[in-house]
Each structure stands twice: as C-alpha cells, then as structure tokens.
Amino acid sequence: MTNRKSKRSPSSPRHAPRWAGVGLGLAAIVLSSMFLAGCGGEEEKPVVVAPPPPPPPPPPPRVATIEELMSRLAIDQRVRLPEELAPASEDARVAVLQFFDAIVRGDGSTAGEFMSLPDRLQLEAMQKDGSWAKATEGIARVDLRAGRSPLGDPAVLAVFHVGRNFEPQLWTYHIDNATAMFDAEPTPPGIMNQLSGEDWIGAWYKVLSDELAKADQPDELVTVPQQSFDKKEDAEDMSSSEGGGGPGPARPRGPGSPGKRPVKDPIDPPPFMPSPGGR
Q1: When you count CB atoms within 10 A of the terminal residue's CB, does the N or C end of the chain come out lower?
Q2: Is the separation of the CB atoms in 185 and 208 below 8 Å?
Q3: Full-prediction pTM beyond 0.85?
Q4: CA distances, 5 to each of 2, 11, 93, 99 (Å)
Q5: Which H/E stretch holds residue 146?
Q6: Would you list the domain boundaries of the chain?
Q7: 79-80, strands of its sheet edge to edge
Q8: Cα gap 255→246, rounded to integer Å
Q9: Can you tell me the mean pLDDT for 227-247?
Q10: Minimal CA–CA distance to 139: which of 158, 123, 157, 124?
C-alpha cells in the first residue's frame, strides 16, 4: 500500500525543481524592479525658490523749509534765503543761516567759530581795530544764494545791503559731523556789476578766472627812443664858432659830464620801463 503522506511531502525530490523555479522567478522579478528603479530617468532637481526681495529703503527724512528753520533757530529777519536758492540738505541750510545770522548781528565770536583759520585771524584783527563793528552795524539785509564752485565744493554768495551800497562776498564751505567751516573766496574789483543770469556763483568764478589770466600775462615792454647828444653838441659848437668869428668856450669832455658820456661808452636802452599805471 502506498504511503500518500510521503508523496505530498514538500521535501520530496519531485517537488524540489518546481519550488526552485518559483524562487528563481521571484528573485528575477525583484532584481528587475530594482534595476528599473535604479536606471530610470534622472531625478528631478528640487525647485529653487528665490528669496523675497528686500523691503524698499525708508524714504529720506523730510528737509525743513527755510521758513521753518528761520523760526526754529530764531534767525534775524535781515537774512534772506529763498527756498529755491537754498542748499538741498538741512545741515547745510542750518549752517548757512546761522553763519550769516551771526554776521548781521555783529556777533564776531559766533561767526569766528564758522570760519577757516585765515579768515578767523582776519576777523580777530578787525575786532581789535574796531572795523568789525563799523562794518556790521550798517547792514540792512543780506541776500543769499547757494551753489557750487567749479571744483564741486558747496558755496554761498552773500550780497550785503549797507546803506545804498551792495557788498558781495563768496564763501565755500564744508560740513563734517554737523560742523561747518566757511572759507572766503577772492573778490574781483567791480564784481557786483558783472553778475548776471541765473548762476551768479558761476559768473563770479568766470570773472575771477579772467582776472587771474590777465595777471599772468607779461607786462608791456616800453622802448625808449635814443638820441645822440654828441652830434648835436658838435654842430652847436661849429655854429657858434662860425657865427662869432672865433672859437667858443669848450665844453667839458671828460667822463661823467652832465648830460653826456664818451662816445666809446654808449648808454644801453633800459630793458623795462613801468607804465604809469604800474606805480
């Protein structure tokens, strides 16, 4: 009688190839799926999200008007600075107003704090001899306008009204850590009558440049015509001898005679003769 249990045993040699084939098939499927996963298309790169733009900078602080600064700083009403001719920054506006406020008030101590060393020394000399008080006590008003020098330095032109006269002055200035320093520019003669147009500061520097160019030109050379005194005097001697019937008195012929030198030692023309205006 046949033993059925022995036929159904999984360890039976008859069933071993079947299970082995099944195992190999599963392994092939697993390896195939792994191969497909590894050799598939390139992995998608992560999307880079740009950072948000920085917030816009805050607006610049509001610049106080000239009218507001005049009231806040108690500036003398004789100081006139139109809004359209004022400096752009508030620090410059404050410095200009305070500097000329001190001048129209005759406050040499405060004005000197704004001046460069050469101008401050001149101010101190004027204070000692009394000319500072005399120069400032008659100021009726001062008209100001801001601009820039040819080198780009900030500048301010001041026209002082003193009686019926106008006295212009041009200053450049620098501001460092809210401290202003003013430096006076040269004043060409008759400059007030030569300022015109919208850019008075530019016109000032143009006149100053022309004056400096003229000063660099050489002075005109004046040639003095020479006259021979020997021939003229010899002719006079011959004339007197012929007219008088006898030899006249002989003139001295030695060196150093008045108005005359020996012929062998002529006078060289002067190399330079100053014009009457150069005295």
Answers
A1: N
A2: yes
A3: no
A4: 9, 11, 115, 123
A5: strand 139-148
A6: 66-213
A7: 79-80, 139-148, 154-162, 165-176, 179-184
A8: 26
A9: 52
A10: 158
